[in-house]
Amino acid sequence: MTYLSSSMVYESTTTWPSREGDERHCAPPLSSYGFQKLAVEYFAHAAWEQHRLPYTIIRPFNCVGVGEVRALGDVEVMSGNVKLAMSHVVPDLVQKVLRGQDPLHILGDGGQVRHYTYGGDLARGIVAAMAHPAALNEDFNLSTATSTTVLELAEKIWHRVRGADVPFRYVSDDPFEHDVQRRVPSTEKAKLVLGFEATTSLDAMLDGVIPWIEQAIARGAI
To answer: How far apart are CA 87 and CA 33, in angstroms?
Structure first.
């Protein structure tokens, strides 16, 4: 069994980078989502101990790629003058900049640290974890090793859409209740055991994502 868990199992950690195994030593996640993900990891361990059902646990970090559309059943919320029904920061920011929002609305102060990882890289890592004999009954962080703040991401998107000479303007809205300030993984285990590295740069991701979202807006898909 291959279980797609989440970086949110490390939600309450106070030390970084988060290494595989730290989820059992830091405080449990405060969000229901993070707690749910951690609970199923425990179920996977228990299924092996009790029934010898082998597992591999995978924790992707901040997947970015094309193809994301309006989440089914999500409630539309206003972010400045733009309605959103998506919960991922990259498509949300791209959509707001493409729609001409000025100043750009971001959640919190923008200092939140994330590791934006290309979906194609994650797919390679997942396949490697499913197939590699050394991945049996192991867990892996799958992520780029590069840290980016939300504010850095927002400014990069702003200038790519509006041009390098347009001053970056933003305002801070109230953050989500469980807006983790730092999610920084150790990527060494996946590299050592699986030979996996996420190599796609954030600039390369945005090269694909920005025109895709522009087309999706024109189609009315988001």
So the answer is: 13
The single-letter code of the amino acid at 125 is G
Residue 131: count of CB within 10 angstroms of its CB: 11
For the chain, the domain total comes to 1
Query: Which CATH number fits the domain that encloses residue 128?
Result: 3.40.50.720
- Global pTM value: 0.91
Domain span at residue 126 reads 2-219
Contact 151, 111 (CB under 8 A): yes
Per-residue pLDDT of the chain (222 residues; tens, 9 = 90+): 999 999 999 999 999 999 999 999 999 999 999 999 999 999 999 999 999 999 999 999 999 999 877 655 455 555 555 555 456 899 999 999 999 999 999 999 999 999 999 999 999 999 999 999 999 999 999 999 999 999 999 999 999 999 999 999 999 998 877 789 999 999 999 999 999 999 999 999 999 999 999 998 998 877
The two three-digit tokens of residue 134, written as one number: 């050394």
